């Protein structure tokens, strides 16, 4: 069974994150495994999509995550902001805040000389030779030649430079482009952010190292001076809000624009904002966006999405826990009707490294000592991951009601990781609910981490387990090359043609039938 979904839609686009589960398949599985009023748990809640699905299907839900950021985003998604009643108050608050940064995004129209609104700026990278005799401006070259050119690897990064400004003026129907004036450059290079709070934390780990040669070693350096100033002012104004619910809403909107407002936004001929999610990639040609426009856009999307989520009259019950999935002392034994969860896929993403931007702004750090991942930086290997995975399964078994189901979503292109996952699952107290064909969540687009893997893993495999009084014993057979070839042929006959689909078919069969060994494929 394949659930195909798009990474789009009002609710999906309310807030960005490195991984996000689609709502429709979760709602389907909730309806299949529970009834109205049942209690659902997601111990690795991420962005809280399980919570959204539970609310839309009139279920109670408990959302847990070790990450401060995940709890923040989940609360933002699953809090009813009563938009219809409070819309005018929210608009008034939004206008008050954005008025503070209006002047940072104005320029002089080249045609009529009037004040015009900056839609975005195009920024390029300037590299300098070792001897300092010449510069290579990658941005200028890319603007003139889409294919770009090869640059000398021994050049040194000098600076990000403002190349062009895109603006709109009442004297013309279409957007206009111009070269920046001295006044424009001065405004773009403003250091007004120093008058306000701005995030000074250092990046750490492997992923951020790609930007160290560009001088981006601290969180605030991920932004142009103008955007950093605008964000600092907005954040300061949000913290002045006295109403707790309104402040939470506006903080949620604020964190939703942190990456689209950064130097990670890629410039393209067509006007959209694109970030390589799951990385800290800064492109050679940057679309330095208008923070005010970003906030306005997300304000509208989030309020619309919130209205869609809370359109029913059901008395919503959502509880949030910040803690490790393998130790949930606040949840009673045999109290949960269904668990749906999407745990970290071992070494695919390092959330601690990626979440530092959010956490640095929020001023609330996560203790990642108990984070269930594989990370050289944290000194955690696949054995440690499997050990914590098994502890999580034990805790899930304790709190789940007898006869209830645990749905587990997982994928990885490396067989060694499947081998350890198999050992953790089969040594647990759960009985697998075996499906002849793989159950998959298939996205039409891929994350950067999925692009980087050898397997075309733009989907997630879904496995179901039941808590029974007496566990059935599963005896695994030895896996051979001949068996792999045989099951591969079965997969092709069943309609699984490309390598990615066949791999999914194999993993679904191998996990509960054969001893997975990395050398087989």
Give a brief description.
With 521 residues, the chain is α/β, with parallel strands linked by helices.
Walk me through this protein's architecture.
The protein has 521 residues and is an alpha/beta fold. The chain has 16 helices and 17 strands. It has helices spanning 23-33, 49-56, 68-78, 83-99, 138-144, 182-188, 225-238, 244-256, 291-309, 351-354, 356-362, 382-399, 415-426, 448-452, 481-493, 499-513, and strands at 2-5, 39-42, 60-65, 106-108, 115-128, 135-137, 156-168, 176-178, 285-289, 318-322, 336-341, 400-410, 431-433, 439-443, 459-466, 477-478, 514-515.
Main sheet: strands, sense, barrel? 9 strands, mixed
- Helix percentage range: 25-40%
Low-pLDDT residue spans: 447-457
Question: Whole-Å distance between the termini?
Answer: 24 Å
Q: What is the rounded Rg?
A: 25 Å
Mean pLDDT: 90
Number of helices: 16
- According to DSSP, the number of beta strands is 17
Helical/strand content category: alpha/beta
Gross morphology: globular
Strand content: 15-25%
């Amino acid at each position: 069974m394949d659930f195909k979904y798009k990474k789009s839609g009002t609710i999906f686009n309310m807030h960005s994150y490195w991984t996000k589960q689609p709502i429709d398949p979760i709602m389907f599985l909730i309806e299949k495994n529970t009834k109205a009023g049942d209690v659902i748990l997601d111990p690795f809640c991420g962005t809280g999509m399980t919570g959204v699905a539970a609310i839309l299907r009139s279920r109670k839900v408990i959302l847990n995550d070790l990450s401060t950021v995940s709890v923040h985003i989940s609360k933002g998604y699953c809090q009813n902001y009563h938009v219809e009643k409070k819309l005018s108050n929210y608009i008034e608050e939004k206008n008050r805040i954005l008025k503070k940064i209006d002047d940072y995004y104005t320029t002089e129209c080249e045609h009529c000389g009037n004040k015009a609104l900056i839609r975005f700026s195009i920024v390029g990278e300037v590299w300098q030779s070792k001897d300092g005799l010449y510069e290579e401006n990658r941005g200028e070259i890319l603007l003139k030649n889409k294919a770009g050119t090869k640059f000398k690897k021994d050049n040194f990064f000098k600076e990000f430079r403002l190349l062009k400004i895109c603006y709109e003026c009442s004297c013309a129907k279409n957007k206009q482009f111009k070269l920046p004036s001295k006044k424009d450059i001065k405004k773009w290079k403003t250091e007004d952010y120093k008058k306000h709070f701005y995030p000074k934390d250092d990046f750490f780990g492997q992923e951020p190292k790609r930007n160290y040669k560009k001088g981006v070693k601290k969180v605030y350096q991920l932004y142009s001076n103008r955007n950093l100033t605008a964000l600092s002012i907005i954040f300061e104004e949000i913290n002045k809000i006295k109403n707790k619910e309104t402040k939470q809403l506006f903080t949620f909107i604020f964190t939703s624009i942190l990456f689209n407002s950064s130097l990670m936004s890629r410039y393209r001929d067509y006007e959209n904002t694109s970030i390589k999610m799951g990385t800290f990639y800064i492109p050679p040609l940057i679309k330095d966006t208008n923070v005010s426009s970003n906030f306005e856009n997300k304000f509208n999307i989030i309020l619309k999405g919130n209205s869609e989520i809370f359109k029913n009259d059901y008395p919503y019950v959502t509880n949030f826990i910040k803690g490790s999935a393998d130790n949930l002392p606040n949840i009673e034994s045999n109290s949960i009707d269904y668990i749906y969860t999407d745990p970290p896929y071992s070494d695919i993403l390092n959330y601690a490294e990626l979440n530092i931007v959010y956490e640095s702004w929020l001023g609330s750090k996560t203790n990642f000592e108990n984070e269930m991942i594989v990370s050289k930086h944290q000194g955690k290997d696949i054995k440690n991951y499997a050990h914590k995975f098994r502890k999580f399964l034990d805790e899930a078994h304790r709190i789940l009601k007898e006869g209830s189901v645990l749905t587990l979503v997982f994928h990885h292109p490396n067989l060694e990781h499947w081998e350890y996952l198999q050992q953790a699952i089969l040594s647990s107290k759960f009985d697998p609910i075996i499906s002849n064909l793989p159950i998959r969540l298939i996205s039409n687009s891929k994350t950067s981490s999925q692009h980087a893997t050898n397997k075309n893993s733009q989907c997630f495999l879904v496995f179901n387990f039941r808590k029974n009084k007496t566990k059935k014993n599963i005896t695994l057979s030895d896996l051979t090359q001949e068996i792999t070839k045989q099951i591969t042929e079965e997969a092709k006959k069943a309609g699984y043609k490309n390598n990615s689909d066949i791999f999914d078919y194999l993993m679904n069969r191998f996990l509960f039938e054969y001893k997975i060994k990395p050398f087989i494929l």
